[in-house]
Specification:
CATH superfamily of one domain: Ribonuclease H-like superfamily/Ribonuclease H
CATH architecture of one domain: 2-Layer Sandwich
Helix content: 25-40%
Radius of gyration: 23 Å
Number of strands: 13
Shape: globular
Strand order of the largest sheet: 3-2-1-4-5-7-10-11-12
CATH topology of one domain: Nucleotidyltransferase, domain 5
Mean pLDDT: 89
Number of helices: 10
CATH class of one domain: Alpha Beta
């Protein structure tokens, strides 16, 4: 059994089969492969880890543990569709016969269901982010909450105090609650950060001379990820399967869906820029109160309370009320007027 485990580990490391092209080389992957090959008396994952360690086939990873801090207002993700996280990887540079191609890969992950989507673009403009999200929601379903960091293309950069970016408007129009994590705290999007690491390790190791080749490789990885790579977050006992793609097929009728006729092309102006209306809905900003008792979002500073220094609050803009409601530990502690220009429409989803 030890010889089989070490041989299988070397086989996965050499990517000798098409199946192993995107596979990992850890104990859990080896355990699953042994089970798939119907080998009897399968050892536990912990036993496989010890065998690999004795053979010098593992690397010790130092886990950085952050000190305890103030309570953070997390969004619960109990079932598929509760929460999706979006982030981008890049810039990355592809080298081929035609020169160097600068590109970005935008990723979205359903936290509870573990389904994922990835799109590659030459830029990270708002229109690229919007196209990625629309394409993702067609295959993943619309989430209740969509969470991302404070990328300028998403927030609009706060140029005008009461303006709303086109990406915010897209979420409002489709009835999705957009939520921004605190600046410089990527760990609050831990699920998508973990997927980013796997995508980079499994996709970028393949030769991709241009953007078209990268897209093909990424699509092949997503097919492997959904139906051939068992997820650590899914169990047969709780979900009926360990594969995100199979779980999505089972739950598809229960998810919210993008309207079939919806297209971003209907909202492009003569210059090819998005011109989405403002719909009734909510967008939230999680922020840590500074030493002066203030928070900042959308290019403006708001005074909360000095005694809440270093505590997290959630500032939620209700476009229907044109007001911002600031909550601390689930209770509204302040409200501010947010008089944006223009009428509001009803969401279409």
């Amino acid at each position: 059994m030890v010889r089989k485990i070490l041989a299988l580990r070397d086989e996965l490391a050499a990517y000798r089969t098409r199946r192993a092209a995107f596979a990992g080389i850890g104990a859990e992957t080896i355990h699953f492969e042994i089970h798939r090959r119907e080998i009897r008396r399968i050892p536990a994952i912990s036993t496989i880890e010890k065998i690999l360690a004795r053979a010098g086939k593992t690397k010790k990873v130092k886990v950085k543990r952050s000190p305890g801090g103030p309570p953070y207002p997390y969004v619960p993700a109990r079932k598929m569709g509760d929460l999706q996280q979006t982030d981008l990887v890049g810039p990355r540079h592809l080298r081929g016969p035609e020169g160097v191609t600068r590109c970005y890969s935008i990723h979205t992950l359903d936290v509870a269901g573990q389904t994922a989507a990835a799109s590659q673009f030459r830029d990270k403009r708002t229109i690229s982010l919007s196209r990625h999200l629309v394409d993702s929601w067609r295959v993943m379903g619309l989430p209740r909450v969509s969470q991302m960091d404070n990328e300028m293309a998403a927030t609009g950069g706060g140029r005008y105090r009461y303006s709303l970016s086109q990406l915010i408007r897209l979420h409002l129009l489709l009835g999705v609650h957009l939520r921004f994590i605190p600046p410089k705290e990527p760990g609050r999007n831990a699920a998508i950060e973990s997927f980013n690491a796997v995508w980079q390790a499994r996709v970028l190791r393949h030769p991709c001379p241009d953007l078209r080749a990268l897209r093909r490789t990424s699509d092949r990885f997503l097919e492997y990820y959904h139906v051939r790579k068992p997820s650590r977050s899914l169990t047969v006992a709780d979900h009926g399967t360990r594969f995100p793609g199979i779980l999505r097929e089972q739950l598809w009728p229960t998810l919210r869906h993008l309207p079939s006729a919806f297209s971003l092309e209907h909202y492009l102006d003569d210059q090819g820029h998005l011109a989405l209306p403002i719909a009734k809905g909510r967008v939230s900003f999680v922020r840590k109160v500074d030493a002066h008792g203030c928070i900042e979002f959308n290019g403006a500073e708001y005074f909360i309370r000095r005694k809440l220094e270093r505590q997290y609050v959630v500032a939620t803009l209700s476009t229907h009320h044109r007001r911002v409601f600031v909550k601390f530990e689930g209770k509204v502690i302040k409200t501010f007027s947010f008089p944006f220009v223009g009428k509001t429409v009803d969401p279409i989803a």
